[in-house]
Specification:
250 residues; alpha+beta; seven-stranded mixed β-sheet; five-stranded antiparallel β-sheet; 12 strands; 24% strand
């Protein structure tokens, strides 16, 4: 008698994958995909945008940009010699309201006491300026290694409103000038007689000489050439009387 075979459960068929299921081949493909590049994941702003966000580098200040400082202002007609005021403080004030050459006139010359420490200032340049209405005429000198009295010298001239200033023969070129005749801050040719005397600058502090340009109703008076060449003070050809006079340093 043959014994019948026992009931064996049917073998389940291999399931099929639908479109919504992950197939092994898909998993492998995902694992072998090339990683995205940096350029695909990070967007950089244009170079021009980055540049505008960087603060500009500050340049080192140049000597030419250093401000001129007024250390002396000479006032016409107040009866005090400007050279004595500059060197010895005679008849001066340190009131800053008298420093401005365009302000109402003061009854004293303005002088900054800082100039008493001339060597310690370590200045590089000094200049004198004559003012008449809107006209300004000046001479700039090297101040390096100078003293309060010797910076005014032809060999120290760096620049001037008068292009013909350098290269001439002078009888006087100094702030002391011809002290005996009361002629200071004096740049003049050798004396040739009143009508032939020639100058660029002249501060008359008193009447001693007999020339017409030495005679004034009050002193000091600040004379300067308005053109580019010599002026003739006897008849005031090319000459003006300054409203104000200043010494500046930097």
């Amino acid at each position: 008698m043959i014994t019948p075979a026992p009931n064996v459960p049917a073998i389940a068929s291999t399931p099929t994958f639908t479109d919504t299921e992950i197939k092994p081949s898909q998993t492998i493909a995902a694992n072998t995909t090339t990683p995205p590049t940096i350029s695909e994941t990070l967007t950089l702003p244009p170079v021009s945008v980055i540049a505008t966000e960087v603060p500009p580098v500050k340049s080192t200040p140049k000597l030419a940009n250093i401000e001129w400082l007024t250390k002396f202002r000479g006032i016409p007609g107040i009866g005090v010699n400007p050279v004595d005021a500059w060197l010895n403080e005679t008849g001066t004030t340190s009131d800053p309201t008298c420093r401005d050459t365009r302000s109402p006139s003061c009854d004293k010359h303005y002088r900054d006491p800082l100039v008493d420490n001339w060597a310690a200032i370590r200045l590089t340049e000094v200049k004198i300026v004559f003012y008449k209405d809107e006209l300004e005429k000046l001479i700039t000198f090297s101040g390096v290694g100078s003293s309060i009295s010797n910076w005014f010298h032809i060999n120290r001239v760096l620049a001037s409103s008068w292009t013909t200033l350098v290269g001439r023969t002078y009888g006087y070129f100094s702030l002391e000038g011809d002290a005996g005749n009361g002629q200071r801050f004096f740049t003049a040719s050798p004396y040739q007689g009143c009508t032939k005397d020639r100058i660029f600058t002249l501060v008359i502090t008193k009447q001693v000489a007999s020339c017409a340009f030495d005679r004034h109703s009050s002193y000091p008076q600040f004379l300067f050439v308005t053109g580019d060449g010599w002026g003739y003070p006897e008849n005031m050809t090319g000459i003006a009387l300054a409203d104000s006079f200043a010494i500046l340093i930097k």
